[in-house]
């Protein structure tokens, strides 16, 4: 694609959408050259939907409770995503386990942000688990989505020190601050054509990452 054109993306959310908001804000202040074609959400009452509406971004709600199984939900999600022809699918707090078929269909074009230093603490309650383990540092990972839960090739990690008096919420808050810096940055790298996935290896500026 012509690199001066905004990168067409769709953003998938399930909750508050603070990461969605930073993507909207960075597009508005022109530090991120992307266009959000749609925000897709699996929860009708998620605040992320309100954020999208305020920014005049098309929204789609696909309530997973209306589907008999993961396959039929993912089929509808695929149909919905493809309607917008995005070059990148951005999972921003999208809390659904996806079928292998869905993930494989979009492999290399779908990224996720996860609040831990993967491969540590896949799944839920990552901040609590890091505190309980007595870790000295925690953080976030941005990765390509693969069929393995929170297991795809890592693009970027940011470390956050764990402080003596940290609680689950104080730690989550500090990780979130870093998430809000890192996610728009990675999407901008896609927009600039600097990231590729070749043989399951992340390539940044033509060099292998890690
Ligand atoms: C973020 O901390 C994100 O890393 C996490 O959900 C939160 C969503 O916050 N994602 C996952 O745990 C995915 N496994 P937000 O809705 O305010 O962006």
How would you describe what is shown here?
With 210 residues, the protein is an alpha/beta fold. It has a domain at 7-113 and 143-150 and 180-208: Rossmann fold (3-Layer(aba) Sandwich). The protein contains six helices and ten strands, in the order βαβαβαβαβαββαβββ. Strand 2, helix 2 and strand 3 (59-61) form a beta-alpha-beta unit. Helix 1 packs across helix 6. The two termini are 27 Å apart. The mean pLDDT is 96. The chain binds glycinamide ribonucleotide.
Note the main sheet: 7 strands, mixed
SS-based class: alpha/beta
Gap from first CA to last CA: 27 Å
| Uncertain segments | none
Radius of gyration: 17 Å
The secondary-structure element order is: EHEHEHEHEHEEHEEE
Please report the total strand number as a whole number: 10
Indicate the overall shape. Answer: globular
pLDDT average, as an integer? 96
Would you tell me which CATH topology of the domain at 7-113 and 143-150 and 180-208 applies? Rossmann fold
- In quaternary terms, these chains amount to single chain
Q: Judging by the overall fold, what is the CATH architecture of the domain at 7-113 and 143-150 and 180-208?
A: 3-Layer(aba) Sandwich
Q: Supply the number of helical segments.
A: 6
The CATH class of the domain at 7-113 and 143-150 and 180-208 turns out to be Alpha Beta
Bound molecules: glycinamide ribonucleotide
The helix fraction, in percent, is 25-40%
Spatial order of the strands forming the largest sheet: 3-2-1-4-5-6-7
Name the CATH superfamily assignment of the domain at 7-113 and 143-150 and 180-208.
Formyl transferase, N-terminal domain
């Amino acid at each position: 694609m012509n690199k001066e054109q905004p990168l067409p993306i769709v953003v998938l959310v399930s909750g508050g959408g603070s990461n969605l908001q930073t993507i909207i804000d960075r597009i508005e202040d022109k530090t991120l050259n992307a266009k959000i074609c749609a925000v897709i959400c699996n929860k009708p009452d998620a605040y992320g939907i309100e954020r999208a509406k305020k920014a005049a971004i098309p929204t789609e709600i696909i309530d997973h409770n209306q589907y008999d199984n993961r396959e039929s939900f993912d089929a509808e999600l695929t149909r919905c995503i493809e309607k917008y022809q995005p070059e990148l699918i951005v999972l921003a707090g999208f809390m659904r386990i996806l079928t292998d078929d869905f993930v494989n269909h979009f492999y290399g074009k779908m990224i996720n942000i996860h609040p831990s230093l993967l491969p540590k603490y896949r799944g839920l309650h990552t901040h609590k688990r890091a505190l309980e383990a007595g870790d000295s540092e925690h953080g976030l990972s941005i990765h390509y989505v693969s069929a393995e839960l929170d297991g795809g090739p890592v693009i970027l990690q940011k470390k956050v020190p764990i402080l003596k008096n940290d609680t689950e919420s104080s730690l989550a808050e500090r990780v979130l601050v870093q998430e809000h810096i890192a996610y728009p940055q990675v999407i901008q790298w896609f927009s600039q054509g600097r990231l590729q996935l070749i043989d399951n290896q992340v390539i940044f500026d033509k060099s292998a990452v890690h």
